[in-house]
Design goal:
The protein contains 3 helices and 24 strands. By secondary structure, the chain is mainly β. Strands 1-24-23-22 form a 4-stranded antiparallel β-sheet, with no helix packed on it. It has a 4-stranded antiparallel β-sheet with strand order 2-3-4-5, with no helix packed on it. The chain has a 4-stranded antiparallel β-sheet with strand order 6-7-8-9, with no helix packed on it. A hairpin with a 6-residue loop joins strand 16 and strand 17. Helix 1 packs antiparallel against helix 2. The N and C termini lie far apart (46 Å).
């Protein structure tokens, strides 16, 4: 505010008298816009903040006591287990390169993840404290990512298919971890792998999430320049489209009661040609495709929302961190454009 006033006074002194009225009008409008600047319209609170770190993709444990997060510091990336109440780190779960985009909770105490250990790709499980034995759930093959383990240990996962036969490996250099729904040079399909070795393509798509009852998945599928949400049963039947707009609706997950689907979307300010110019927020929609609701409102990039059993929503965001927030977390300053975990309590309205 002070800088605006001083700059305007200097310009008024140097400006011709004929322009003085216009200058005063500009000054008045500038001061008014600063006074009327809106505070964040949501009540999200900062959960994690570590020195020179980014924390992303929060995954609440089934009992709600812990979170898995993708943690990055410089070129180092690992999966950490944290206390969901305050975000404090408990232990390193895995620094396996393949675990970064494939880890999930198998139960309250065990996690699963992809690994190339033992001479080939497989889905493995281990105790979430990072210690003890590791067991291979199922051997896999191909460009597999974002797996889900069903109750019978069948696996639903995304398989990436190169669009150019000469390109068979992903380029992880300068990777934007916020975007886990596009892999340049690859198409994606959702495949079910059963324990007997058989497999079945369920649909084209990305970002699958298993419903609380274990009977269906919700996922994102491209349609032209837009990306919509779909639901399908785990056996590949009953395909249903949920969203339909000129936007990218991605990273879906379920509410704890299975009545709502949370997702990341740029529909509030979509730029389908230049995604970097879009505004990304957390939205919710009923599992029946009704009652679309915006949950977060911020200029930062909000994404990857997950709800725990108590109804708390966790998500990552690169929204600004104030000095007071940094002080509360005993961090001198927060890196600009770094991601951290935020939480928000959302009371769902009765569905129509």
């Amino acid at each position: 505010m002070r800088r605006i006033v001083l700059l305007a006074m200097g310009l008024l002194v140097a400006a011709p008298a004929a322009n003085a009225a216009d200058m005063l009008e500009w000054l008045d409008s500038s001061i008014s816009s600063v006074k009327n600047a809106k505070a964040p319209a949501d009540s999200a609170g900062l959960l994690t903040l570590e020195n020179k770190e980014s924390e992303m993709y929060p995954m609440p444990s089934p009992d709600g006591k812990h979170l898995l997060t993708l943690t990055q510091q410089g070129k180092k990336v690992w999966i950490a287990r944290r206390v969901s109440e305050n975000g404090d780190p408990v232990n390193l779960v895995s620094n396996d390169e393949r675990a970064v985009d494939s880890i999930g909770w198998k139960n309250d105490g065990q996690v699963y993840y992809l690994s190339d250990r033992a001479g080939g790709l497989g889905l493995w499980e281990k105790i979430s404290d990072g210690e003890g034995m590791q067991r291979r759930i199922q051997p896999l093959h191909g460009g597999i990512t974002q797996p889900i383990v069903l109750a019978d240990e069948a696996v639903i996962a995304v398989r990436l298919k190169p669009l150019n036969y000469k390109k068979s490996k992903l380029n992880h250099d300068n990777r934007d971890y916020f975007n886990n729904w596009e892999y340049e040079g690859f198409a994606s399909e959702i495949v079910r792998f059963d324990k007997d070795g058989s497999e079945k393509v369920l649909a084209d798509g990305i970002n699958p999430a298993l419903s609380p009852d274990g009977n269906s998945i919700v996922f994102a599928m491209a349609a032209g320049r837009s990306i919509h949400l779909f639901r399908i049963d785990t056996d590949g039947s009953n395909l249903i489209q949920i969203t339909d707009a000129r936007s990218d609706d991605v990273q879906p997950s379920w509410s704890s009661d299975g009545k709502w689907i949370l997702f990341t979307s740029n529909r509030a300010n979509a730029d389908l040609k230049h995604q970097g110019k879009s505004q990304w927020d957390i939205w919710a929609i009923g599992a029946n495709g009704r009652n679309l609701t915006q949950i977060t409102f911020n200029e930062g990039r909000d994404g990857a929302a997950r709800m725990d059993k108590n109804g708390h929503i966790y998500f990552h965001s690169d929204r600004a961190v104030s000095r007071d927030m940094a002080a509360q977390h005993q961090v001198k300053s927060a890196s600009s454009h770094s991601f951290h975990i935020w939480s928000i309590d959302w009371i769902a309205k009765p569905q129509q």
